[in-house]
Write a structure and sequence with these properties.
The protein is mainly alpha-helical and 85 residues long. It is built from four helices and no strands.
Length: 85
């Protein structure tokens, strides 16, 4: 019987470009139970705040694009009518 490194793990080198040893050093899960990287409460809080800021920026960009698409343009109706003729 194998060690549980079957189907999903066979091509990890090609997927990541890292050998098993390199993945282990960088915190990638191995063939056994992986322990999560230890971070301090302050590090986690900082990372979460940064992620929230990044997501707020993306949300703003999405809302701007939605507004652009919802705002009718004067030429949009006339060109659609020309195409229909």
């Amino acid at each position: 019987m194998g060690r549980g490194g079957g189907r999903g793990w066979r091509w990890m080198f090609r997927a990541t470009g890292l050998t098993g040893e390199q993945r282990a050093r960088t915190g990638w899960p191995g063939s056994g139970a992986a322990s999560p990287p230890s971070v301090t409460k302050e590090q986690e809080l900082s990372a979460l705040k940064q992620r929230a800021t990044d997501l707020e920026q993306v949300l703003g960009e999405l809302n701007s694009r939605i507004e652009e698409l919802e705002t009718p343009t004067p030429d949009a109706g006339s060109s659609a009518e020309k195409d229909a003729r």
